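Q: Please design a sequence for this.
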């Protein structure tokens, strides 16, 4: 039954209950948007590119989404700030443009420079290869793509968890509540509170132990400790802990979700899978990256990013769909929809690896473009390569080969390959 048929059935069933009909239609639209966001967004792009209802706005076309993300003075990240502050403290993802933001991001860029990336690429590739080589012809992409970034956190940041499983679980709980819990589900928030309550003292002990040891390790923690002295240009121990929570929480779940969903998109497209396998087996890392980016476009980890409108703002000014978003509105900049906008992208439903890089909004845009984008751009293809270079890559047989997920994350994707 199509959604239109569903609505007609509801209209007959609830013809004497106008309020009930409105509630049910709204609920069915929400379910359709969650289950098939690409269809929902296509409808909005065609009929209402900037949808404003009550205190919520959804922006769907490419140019308009980029406009929202690049106008950080009008579209605030304050929607994330409250939960971040409660669970971890103030971190750059919850700070708008300000002296505090500039100070923190500058310190982090000095401590985690792009010059680290080549060494991290080699580390991620080696860890992924080691994990896959021990798998007996099958591997769960969710497990693989969470364990590699967890190990990278220990190597690069210098802040391993008590164990891999605990570190991963903490980050999944915190990320889900801060970035994905738009309905303010109490269970998700409680799980995040517990994770934060355990993660904070663990990191405090890691920082204290490093300082007590006097070990000048060449990792992000070692550099931040070495920089301490002038409060204007260095973090206190508490600020180090707060920023590490933000970095780690933004690191593991994103890589896990993006890699798994992209791999599932490749498995859905035999020609694309063959292209990615050929690139992996030929050590053509640039071609493999292009395959992964295109797969991520077609199967993104989230429908978009949320902003709170700080002032009245007219999106798409001068166009036929110019729309005023009022101050205070929660605004979804629908990056998933933007990357399927046929007015900007040629043949957007096709798998093509020749698209210009600016058509990809995986890491957002503007001031709050993902801080870890260079590290993630390295490790997502490296993780996938360890599997794609095997012969006979395919879904595991039966139901186990289907992508499994909950409302926040993919939870299992079993892939088979020949020995």
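A: Design:
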């Amino acid at each position: 039954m199509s959604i239109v048929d569903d609505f007609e059935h509801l209209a007959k069933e609830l013809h004497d209950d106008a309020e009930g009909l409105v509630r049910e239609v709204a609920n069915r639209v929400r379910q359709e948007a969650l289950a098939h966001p690409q269809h929902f967004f296509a409808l909005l792009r065609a009929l209402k590119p900037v949808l404003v209802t009550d205190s919520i706005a959804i922006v769907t076309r490419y140019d308009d989404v980029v406009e929202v993300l690049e106008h950080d003075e009008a579209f605030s990240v304050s929607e994330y700030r409250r939960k971040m502050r409660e669970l971890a403290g103030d971190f750059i993802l919850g700070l708008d443009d300000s002296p505090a933001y500039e100070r923190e991001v500058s310190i982090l860029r000095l401590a985690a420079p792009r010059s680290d990336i080549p060494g991290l690429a080699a580390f991620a590739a080696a860890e992924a290869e080691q994990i896959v080589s021990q798998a007996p012809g099958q591997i769960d992409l969710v497990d693989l793509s969470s364990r590699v970034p967890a190990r990278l956190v220990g190597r690069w940041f210098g802040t391993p968890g008590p164990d891999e499983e605990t570190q991963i679980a903490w980050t999944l709980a915190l990320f889900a509540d801060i970035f994905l819990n738009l309905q303010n589900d109490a269970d998700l928030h409680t799980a995040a509170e517990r994770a934060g309550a355990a993660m904070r003292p663990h990191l405090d002990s890691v920082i204290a132990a490093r300082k007590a040891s006097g070990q000048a390790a060449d990792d992000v923690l070692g550099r931040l400790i070495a920089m301490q002295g002038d409060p204007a240009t260095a973090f206190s121990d508490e600020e180090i802990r707060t920023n590490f929570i933000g970095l780690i929480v933004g690191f593991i779940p994103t890589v896990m979700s993006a890699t798994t969903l992209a791999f599932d998109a490749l498995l859905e497209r035999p020609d694309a899978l063959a292209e990615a396998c050929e690139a992996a087996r030929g050590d053509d890392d640039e071609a493999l990256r292009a395959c992964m980016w295109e797969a991520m476009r077609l199967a993104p980890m989230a429908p978009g990013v949320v902003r709170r409108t700080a002032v009245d703002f007219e999106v798409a000014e001068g166009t036929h769909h110019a729309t005023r978003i009022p101050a205070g509105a929660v605004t979804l900049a629908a990056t998933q929809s933007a990357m399927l906008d046929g007015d900007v992208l040629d043949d957007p439903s096709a798998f093509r690896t020749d698209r210009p890089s600016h058509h990809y909004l995986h890491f957002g845009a503007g001031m709050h473009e993902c801080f870890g984008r260079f590290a993630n751009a390295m490790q997502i293809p490296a993780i996938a390569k360890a599997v794609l270079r095997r012969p006979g890559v395919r879904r595991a047989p039966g139901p186990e080969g289907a992508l499994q997920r909950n409302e926040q994350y993919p939870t299992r994707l079993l892939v088979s390959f020949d020995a």
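Q: Thanks. Anything notable?
A: The mean pLDDT is 89. The chain has one domain: 35-416.
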